[in-house]
Here is the input.
Amino acid sequence: MSNELKTNIKKRERREEGWKRNKIKIARLKGEKYVTLKGKVVGPRQTGPSCGCRNKCTDKFTDEEKANIISNLYNGRPKDEQDSYLQSLIECVQIIRRRPRKTQDEARLRISNFHYYMWKGDERIHVCKQAFVSLHGTNSKAVQRLSILLRLGLQPEDQRGKHSSRKLLPDEDLQKIIDHIKIIRSNRYTLETINYMEAQSVVSMYNLFVEKYPELKHKVKYDYYLKLDTNYLEELAS
Here is the structure.
């Protein structure tokens, strides 16, 4: 093929906006109906059922206000921004007075609680967790994740599509991490050590783990240890 003919050939442009995967992503960010790559139909984002609490939190909002909450949240902005907005409406409150119904050894004592808020016009009002979940058209697991990240002082970050392929840890090494987290966290949830452990960070926990198992230092990174610790805290809080 001559050089003149080569120069006349145009390279086909990538039209990523037309890719099915990207269409699904855009529809999800806008809260619109879409069909997954496996053929599953996912309906549009909408307000869930009434919270059913004694304060009737969901009943404080009109149908128009509920629709605006959904449209303002799912307006096509990135998921990180959506999650950050939701997290800004959650407050982590330290528990001061306790009324344990079990013995101290049996009770799972929480170090903090969460308050949830909604915007009603220019007024920021306190609502129950179920109302917070329902009015935003999300689920309890997603809100729990944001709450745990808030307690750890972390910002939400969308990790979908960012995971690199890697070898899974052997079961015995994974169990060492889980056992180490359980030992430290179980001490945190007792009255004698709660003030001391409150000041401990996950970084300190990870450093203690590496100190105990130096052979795992290059196999177990901090991010992976943090992920397992966050999962454990979610189980305790559920």
